[in-house]
Amino acid sequence: MHIKVWFLMFLGMLCFGISYAQIPTVSGISRNAVSNLHGKGGRLWVGSQLNFTDDNGTSWKLASVDSIQKGRGSVYSLDAEGQVIWVGLGYSQRQKTTDSVEPVSQGFAFSEDGGQTWKFRLPALDAPQDSLLSYGVSVIKALPVTTPVQSPPYDIDYDPVRGWVWTAGWAGGIRVSKDKGITWQRAILPPDSQSETDPNVPQFFYMTPVPKGKTRPGQENHKGFSVLVDETGTTWAGTSGGLNRSFDGVAWKKISFNGSLNGLLGNWITSIEEQPSVGRNPIWVACWKALDQKESFGVVVTRDGGQTFEQMLHGEKIYDFAFDGTSIYAAGDNGLFISHNDGRSWLSVRDFRDASQPDRYLRPSAKVYAVSMVNGALWVGMQDGLLRSLDQGKTWKLFRTEIPVNPSNPTNTIPKVDTYAYPNPFSPSTDQVIRIRYDITQSQQVTLRIFDFGMNLVRTLVAGETRNQGSREELWDGRDNRGIQVANGPYLYTVSSAEGTFRGKILVLE
């Protein structure tokens, strides 16, 4: 998962009155916010809660990782190679001084037996005294990164040949562990002022991912977004300063935006994925616009190990890639992009509607954050649902967390309620819509109104309209009857029908 999700999604993970972390394993995914997908060996892993399926969604299981199931951690990144699975854990917290939401690293969980048992590792950070780094013939001065704040594991990749695990941790940079996460070493990437680092050549620069004043400017190339070890053993590292390549994990070459037609489109490298192919595997790269106004969002692919790049999907903000032969799937802000001819032409999908239940759909404006191929099935992860297509994206089946309004066997974690709204708290800019769920026993007229805490009418969402029998959902975009965005604070809503009036609460928190 990449930078793609966690600045955007954290506030959308709680359902009114029910913490998703408390929901037991059910016949579906445990969180509707799907930030990561990883398919390997017939199994699909799903974050942010770490569900998995071995039968293309017929049945689901929930990995027993205490940091997720019993704590506040979520899956920020994951990788699976055979029986070895690595998961980068993190959470978001609001800073009291700035009122901003910042990502925080919680560490890592890994399994060596296919997910049966798990071990925990601390975040990849420095000790306060770690200000000098040995690098061949040089000693590099560095700013120790000692706090997990702003150092989340945005990406992770396990190298089964060497047994090394790599992670990209934004302010923590690109790091590698050669002892199963017990210790971590920084990758000595080139500073912004040079294109290569070589342990056999003296190096003279200060290594810091964050600004430290005019005398010690921050290094954009030391802020890590993405990492990949390809089939040749070449390590690729994406930063906010460009794309870095290493054949041995020690010496690095930086490839930066230079305005050429066969180079990068932008210097923020948010995703790097390898396409299985005959011969050398192509490397697909998501570029985001960074500091140079000439840069742009889009995708590049290199088929010759980084010598040249083909540019495509200009202007699109892409988060993830998946492959099926010469078919390429790219997850982005404007939907799912599909190419069936190795990237020469593309079509876009924005209508994600369940073919068997057309009233179950994800809105056309919803962003696609993750994509994966498993056993011929195409999986798409979005902010409030998971979708599967068995026909290359023509039709879909929607998987969502199903919490009944009136369960036949209520429990403390799934109580009997008349209505609830989710995600709650609700951030209009991040979540776009909040879903208000209720249940009616027969077709009838329904009125749904939203009030502020003083019981002043804010929005009439449904005005005496007929709704069919069953579980229903209404969507609110956080605007009042005049189309103006409402202020932060608590709101009340009422659902009125022939069966009575049900009430619920919504907390708007922008």
Structure description:
This protein is mainly beta and 510 residues long. It has a domain of 90 residues: Immunoglobulin-like (Sandwich). It is 2% helix and 44% strand. The protein is built from three helices and 43 strands. A five-stranded antiparallel beta sheet has the order 17-22-21-20-19, with no helix packed on it. The chain has a four-stranded antiparallel beta sheet with strand order 3-4-5-6, with no helix packed on it. Strands 7-8-9-10 form a four-stranded antiparallel beta sheet, with no helix packed on it. The longest helix is centred in the N-terminal third of the chain and has 4 residues. It is globular, with a radius of gyration of 24 Å. The two termini are 24 Å apart. The relative contact order is 0.11. The N terminus is likely disordered.
Computed over alpha carbons, the radius of gyration is 24 Å
Give unreliable regions as ranges: 1-26
- Coarse shape: globular
The level 1 CATH classification of the domain at 419-508 is Mainly Beta
Q: DSSP helix count?
A: 3
Strand order of the largest sheet: 17-22-21-20-19
Count of β-strands: 43
Give the integer mean of the pLDDT values. 88
Strand content: 35-45%
Helix content: under 10%
Topology readout:
Blueprint: H1 6-9, E1 14-15, E2 18-19, E3 36-40, E4 43-47, E5 51-53, E6 61-62, H2 66-69, E7 74-81, E8 84-94, E9 101-111, E10 119-121, E11 132-135, E12 138-142, E13 155-159, E14 164-168, E15 174-177, E16 185-186, E17 196-197, E18 206-207, E19 224-229, E20 235-239, E21 243-246, E22 252-255, E23 268-274, E24 283-288, E25 298-302, E26 310-312, E27 318-324, E28 327-332, E29 335-339, E30 347-349, E31 352-353, E32 361-362, E33 368-374, E34 377-382, E35 385-389, E36 397-399, E37 419-422, H3 428-431, E38 434-440, E39 444-452, E40 457-467, E41 470-476, E42 489-497, E43 500-508
Parallel strand pairs: 12-18
Antiparallel strand pairs: 1-2, 3-4, 4-5, 5-6, 7-8, 8-9, 9-10, 11-12, 13-14, 14-15, 15-16, 17-22, 19-20, 20-21, 21-22, 23-24, 24-25, 25-26, 27-28, 28-29, 29-30, 31-32, 33-34, 34-35, 35-36, 37-38, 38-41, 39-40, 39-42, 42-43
